[in-house]
Structures are given as C-alpha cells and as structure tokens.
Design a protein that fits this description.
By secondary structure, the protein is an alpha/beta fold. It folds into three domains: 148 residues, Rossmann fold (3-Layer(aba) Sandwich); 204 residues, 3-Layer(aba) Sandwich (Rossmann fold); 30 residues, no CATH class. It is 45% helix and 16% strand. It contains 17 helices and 15 strands. α8 runs parallel beside α9. The protein is globular, with a radius of gyration of 26 Å.
Length: 434
Amino acid sequence: MAEIVRLSTRDADFDARLARLTAFDAAQDQTVDATVAEILAAVKSRGDAAVLEYTARFDGVTAATLAELELPRELLARARDALPSAQREALEQTAARVRRYHEKQLAQSWQYTEADGTVLGQKLTPIDRVGLYVPGGKAAYPSSVLMNALPAKVAGVAELVMVVPTPRGEKNELVMAAAAIAGVDRVFTIGGAQAVGALAYGTQTIAQVDKIVGPGNAYVAAAKRRVFGVVGIDMVAGPSEILIICDGKTDPDWIAMDLFSQAEHDELAQAILLSPDAAFIDAVAESIARQLEAMPRKAVIRASLEGRGALIQVRDLDEACAIANRIAPEHLELSLENPEKWAEKIRHAGAIFLGRYTSEAIGDYCAGPNHVLPTSRSARFSSPLGVYDFQKRSSLITVSPEGAQVLGKISMVLAEGEGLQAHARSAQYRLRRS
C-alpha cells in the first residue's frame, strides 16, 4: 500500500507543506555535467570519430563509419508495413489527428500599409533543419516521434534528422514505423550526449541542425543545456506531473488510475488530487491501495506517490483552481460538472483536460494536441510544443519617402538622446532639404 500524503488547506502549515511538495531541485549533477562537457568537446573537435567511440562505449554498437549507423528509408518503410494492422492503424490515426490539430497553429506572414505608403509587416519562415532526439532500446516512444516530428513538418522544416540509441543493437520497430509515418528525413542509431553534440556542432556525416527537440535522460538534458545558443532547444523538461481537480462525483477508480498514469513514468513524477469532498478522497485512497498491487510498475508508482504525491482537501473548487494556478501543472484534469466554467479560472497549465471522460492518457497519445508540455511550474511562462516552435519571424519594414520625413526626425531625436550620432546622421540623410 502506498502511503500517500494527505493534506488540507485548513492546516496551519499547508502553504509550507505544499511548497515543499511541489519543489523540484533541478540542480545539475556535477559528475554528469563534467562528463557531458568532455563528450561535447570531443564531438566538436573530432566529429564522426568521437561519436563512433562513445557509441561503442555506451551502447555496445560498433561501426567503421557513422554512415553505417544511418537507417535507410526503405528499412523504416518496411518496419511500418510489417506492423500488426492494429498498431499501424493506431499510429496512422494518431498521426492524422496530430497533423490536423497542428495545421490550425500554422501562422501566416502579414503586412499593412500606412497612409504615407510605409509598409510594415512580419514574414514567417520555417527552421531549415531540426534534430529530433528519441529515447531508444527496449523503451518504445513512437508517440514522441509523432508529437515532435509532425509539428516540424507542418511548419515546413526542410530536413528532420532523428537520433535514437540502439543499446546492443536493439531497434524498436514501432519507433522506426513512426518515423516513416511522420516523414522523418534521416535516422541515425546514436544517442546520449554524443548524439546531441553531433546535431549541435555537425560532423563529417551529420550536418549541423538549427534546433534540437525531444526528451532524454540526464546526460541528454545536460547536453541540451550546454549547446543552447549554438542551436535552439525546445525545453529541458523535469519529471512528469498530473494535477486532478474533482468534485467527488467521478468514479474513484478512474481518478486513482489517472494518478497512476503519471506516477508510473518515474519515481520523481508527481500526482496530486484536489477535492472538497473528504469522503471521496477516502475512496480514492482506498482505490489506490486496492489497484496498486496489480500494476506491473507498482514499485515506480509507489515511490512516486509516497515521495511526491498528495491527496488534498480544499474548501471549495475556487480554492482548488487557485492552488492549481500556483502549482502550474504539466497536466491538469478538471473532472467536474461544467468543466468549461472552471477552465476560465485556470491561467497556468500545460494541457487542460475537461470532463470526466477526458483522461490524460488520451491526450498523451491520440487526442491531437501535443504531449510535449512545460513542467516544473514553467507553464507560468511557456507553452506546449507546437508549429510555432519551428517557425521564425522576421520583421518587414519598407519606409516610403514621405514616411522617412516623419520617422527620420523621430529617429534623430532618439539617437541624439542616446549619443549615437551615426544613427542620427543616417536618418537625417533621408530628410528632404527645404
């Protein structure tokens, strides 16, 4: 039985206990960071040779050239075609839903003309080349391939390069099939910090990308932190989170399993329930105890719930929404009557799941919105991965001769105030002499 923390907002020390519960120490492990720094330096200076050496050392995969570790498109297509029909249909249906949702995010260039003929606007262009990191080995994350690759393709990214480790040569058929379905351009069976370095700096075989997206272990996260600035990155994600607000009228078994669905990710994952109904919280606690023993990943779930989980009684649903905004969770379930009303009160959440039938698991896989979401309270200032992460904006300015007479004088005044005489003179040259 998992001994999950029980709290009440009426407790005198509630605020302090909630702060401790939701705090996550994202401090980097100095040993990991030092190792990553060494790996990145080697890849930057020696390219393919360093990537091959680290791949042999860490993954047990040897090759004479990095080109040997590239999977041809024909192999990806065969993996797709060989899938059992149910798996292939599930991937293709998910891909269609994810693509359709993200097509709604595709922004367009725009401009407007002022009365004097000056034209101002914005030009949107896709990133040229993106690197996609996918965890490999026995773990299968085909959904992550789709969630990261399809928004890039919708945005118009010209080349999408995927890296996926294959420890001891283990290739995952679902991941390869997902790459084929998503239209990934190149796939290399490399992983770890060395793969991040290859994408960030480029090697003799892999061209430098402009942005790196996708999840990974502590070494991958540390490498992404270090190469940011050389290339863009999506985010450095923390452990997965779910916060459920329930009025006590949903089946407690459903709520318990929804909490499990995030707790099973990782011992550091966080699962929290907020409800004003004490009897319902008791029922959920009983359901957790009863259902846990049957879960294949019960050890991970138990560690997550005991270490970072909580069942919290609130005064009312307004208070629950206020606490949710304080936590700014990655996933927020509103298992309530009239959830749309309560969603209006939510300002900070990565994804909001409305209604009793909207399980977070459906959002993780096939609803359509992206499952790459901000964690560790970063939903206060960031958003889910989307097409906008693969588009760049350039300002467009066309000043007419008439516009230059007005804007030039304004520029001169401001430039002289900042002591930048060349700026002032540059604007002055465009003024008509009377």
